Task: structure prediction
Amino acid sequence: MVGKGYSVKNAQMEMSMVAEGYNAAKCMHIINQTVNAEMPIAETIYNILWNSLSAKKGFEKIEAVLI
Result:
């Protein structure tokens, strides 16, 4: 739903199930602050879900890093 342009808050209100990846993205971000590994996909997903980065801009950023 976030990829379709919904905000995280609106997507959560519309869903009738738990979006498990939402909290997992934050956990990965916190763990990576200690490990300090390069994880551009996980970090971008975290920024999309927790820091209001648009999905379009996030995936453009991932594309640029992986090319």
About this structure: The longest helix spans residues 20-35. The radius of gyration is 12 Å. The chain has one domain: 8-66. The chain has four helices and no strands.
